[in-house]
Amino acid sequence: MNIKKLNDPILIAAWPGMGHVALTACYYLMSKLKMEVLAEYAASELFDVDHVSVESGLVQPFRYPRSQFFAWRNPAGERDLLLFVGESQPQVGRYDFCRKLIDYAQREGVTRVFTFAAMATPMGLEDESRAVGAATDNDTLQEMVEQKVALLSGGSISGLNGILLGVASERNIPGGCLLGEMPMNLINVPFPRASLAVLEAFGRMTGTPIDVGELKVEVERMDQFLADALNQLRLVEQQNGEHEADEPDPTFVPDPAENGKLTAEQKEYLESLFSGARSDRSKAYELKRELDRLNVFREYEDRFLDLFKSDNDG
Known about the structure:
This protein is of the alpha/beta class. It has nine helices and ten strands. Strands 2-5-6-1-7-10-8-9 form an eight-stranded mixed sheet, with helices on both faces. Strands 3-4 form a two-stranded antiparallel sheet.
């Protein structure tokens, strides 16, 4: 791993949440900027276990959620990025968890902190997603206004997305939370349009070069899928003599593997995508999209994250 010190890095942090908004944005950044794993944050004592996995009749070892830092070194010599992705939020000790996370970030030279999240609103399916923001300091607040980020007028930011910013504020570290707007009755469905709004706002605010072309294609694909699902649902309800629905069923998930199992052809297809992503890390988002489409990302998550290890990590 290249141990060269990061140049005035900006920290981004995200955890799983509604519509996969935050993690989709982060995994897209990891892929397109060809990030590398910098460190793993071991905090297994903060996570409880409520089940074990069974494969072919055998109970599998416990697998604690991973929390990892990824780095991008700006080839233009400007500010680098330090990206933190947590697979799950700890059940206890969240404030202490965030303090230690910020401790590490400050040792790496971080002087600005952002968290990514989702915000569910009554927006219509055809409405544009807004990026909504809340800042830890007046300069960032003004920057959000200048960059056309809607401001969160009140309420709260739950979980570590908010607590981490609270710790940053205690230490006078500027930054904020960027929330992607999504329909409130689609929170269980991936909604990349909100992720796109977050990344575009982040790019404008920080000057980070982000090619969002592939994400825009994914937005179009998901928009078409949701429109088709809505039309099918309306047709069924019309045939049943019921009122038309306003939105598709939020429990509907696109193209899952049959009975939770992949066919031999699907497995071969995924292996080809893994091979391509190992050769060219920018192709990792295509792999992530297909793992999500087949509803098997959790099964392949460790392998996916290992794609971002440096060649020197072994």
